[in-house]
Amino acid sequence: MSAPKKIRLDKASKKLILLYADREFELPAEYLRVYSPSAEVRGHGIGQGTLVSGKMHVGIEKVASAGRYALQIFFDDGHDSGIYTWAYLRELCDRQQANWQAYLERLKYEGKGRDPDVSPVKFIG
């Protein structure tokens, strides 16, 4: 997978904008953070991933190239260990809606939320 033609960080809207030959995508910082390819989020093997919650307000401090194959994203919560390959970034673009829905459903199932200042109440019964 080739790199986007243009990459722009919009700190005000907390989005990374990627321009490809076929279209433009806007990826919110929260989406990129909860789908980080880091070992901290994905784990070291199948089924070892961690559900990241409470990142509604996260922003991106900066992005840097990681060789010629990826981006490193520096989030304002201190997370910076994910290396987003061009192929993985494009996958996040193409699957954004489905990924986001799956994430919201998993949060609900596990009784967690997007807002770090609000603790969801899980009713039993």
Automatic annotation (TrEMBL):
Alphabetized InterPro entries for the sequence: GBBH-like_N, GBBH-like_N_sf
GO molecular function: metal ion binding
Keyword Nucleotide-binding set for record: no
A Pfam short name: GBBH-like_N
First and last residue of the signal peptide: none
Keyword Nucleotide-binding on entry: no
Source species, domain of life: Bacteria
Residues of the Gamma-butyrobetaine hydroxylase-like N-terminal domain: 7-90
Keyword terms of this UniProt record: Iron, Metal-binding
Name by which UniProt lists this protein: DUF971 domain-containing protein
